[in-house]
C-alpha cells in the first residue's frame, strides 16, 4: 500500500503515516506495543521483559501488517493473516532460540489455541494495537479501512477478526465499521490463564 497520513489532531502536530510493512529497526518497539496492548492473550505465553519482546519480534513477518508511524515511532500496528502467510509467524525453531525445547513446546501448544486459519478469500486481523496516547483518534479505524482496501485490491472477499469477551468496546467499534458476528467460541486453556472466557468471531464482507 502507498504510505498515507491519518487525518485528525495528534500529539506533536503532524499526523502519523500508515505503512504497509513494519520497518526492521522498529520491530522491537512494535513487539513491546503488541505485548502491552494484547497482554491478556500474549503475556501468559511469552512472559514479560526483553526476552519476550525479542521472541515476539523474531516471529514477525514484517510484510504482513499495517503500521502507524509518528516521527519514526510505532504508534499503531495491525497484523494481517491470509491463507498464504501471517504476521505472527511463530515456529518451534524461533521459540527454541529464546525458551529452549520444553519451554517452546508448551508455548507452541498454547499459541495453537489462539491461531486462526483463514479460508481462501479471507484476510484475518491478527491483532490490533494502538499506543495509549494515540487512542480515540481514528488510528485503529484508519488501519482497518486500509486493510479492507488492500484486501479488496488483492481480490479477497472478506475481512475477519476475533474479539475477547472482556473487550465489549472493541466489538462496538467493529460493528460500526461494518463487521457482523458469526459465532462465539471458547478459548481454552489460554482464556483460563488470561481472564477471558470466550472470543467472538466477526466478519466484514467486501463484495
Structure report:
- This protein is of the alpha+beta class and about 210 residues long.
- Helices cover about 40% and strands about 25% of the residues.
- It contains 7 helices and 8 strands; from the N terminus they run ββαααββαβαβαβαβ.
- The model has no long low-confidence stretch (mean pLDDT about 85).
Strand pairing plus helix content: what structural class?
alpha+beta
Classified by CATH, the class is Alpha Beta
CATH architecture: 3-Layer(aba) Sandwich
Q: What's the total count of β strands?
A: 8
Helical content, roughly?
A: 25-40%
Gyration radius from CA atoms, angstroms? 16 Å
Widest sheet: strand order? 1-2-3-4-5-6-8-7
The major sheet is characterized as: 8 strands, mixed
Principal-axes geometry comes out as globular
Total helix count? 7
Q: Proportion of β residues?
A: 15-25%
Outline the low-pLDDT stretches.
Answer: none
N-to-C order of helices and strands? EEHHHEEHEHEHEHE
Briefly note the CATH topology name. Answer: Aminopeptidase
Number of domains: 1
Average predicted confidence as pLDDT: 87
Give the termini separation.
20 Å
Name of the CATH homologous superfamily: Gcn5-related N-acetyltransferase (GNAT)
